[in-house]
Amino acid sequence: MKQRRAAIIFLEDLMDIKVLGTGCANCKNTLSLIEQVAKDKGVAITLSKVEDIKDIMGYGVMSTPGVVINGKVVHAGGVPSRDKVAQWFAA
């Protein structure tokens, strides 16, 4: 008989990550990188894109892509390094 394992994740335990950008290649690469590093590290996240320029400016980000984690801007401008993304998940 096979054993099944289930993980219960509470919504408040998820890291809420937003990638701010209008859809450029760097924004898409940042989104993919965050998704891959989270998967590799086994970190549960919610990941969304914010593409409306007014919403992006509301975070005070003038250079995209920007990354917001749990409401705090942690990166702006250019694709973050894999090591930098991994550090976000280690904190």
UniProtKB/TrEMBL annotation:
| Keyword Disulfide bond in annotation | yes
Under the heading PANTHER family, the entry gives: THIOREDOXIN
Instruction: Cite the Gene3D superfamilies for this sequence.
Output: Glutaredoxin
Give the intrachain disulfide bonds. C24-C27
Q: Domain of life of the organism in this record?
A: Bacteria
**Can you give the residue ranges of the Thioredoxin-like fold domain?**
15-89
Its protein name is Thioredoxin family protein
Keywords, sorted A to Z: Disulfide bond, Redox-active center
Q: Which NCBIfam families match?
A: redox_disulf_2 (TIGR00412)
Q: Which InterPro entries match?
A: Thioredoxin-like_fold, Thioredoxin-like_sf, THIRX-like_proc
The answer, when asked if Disulfide bond is one of the entry's keywords, is yes
Q: Where is the active site?
A: C24, C27
State the organism's lineage: Bacteria, Pseudomonadati, Pseudomonadota, Betaproteobacteria, Burkholderiales
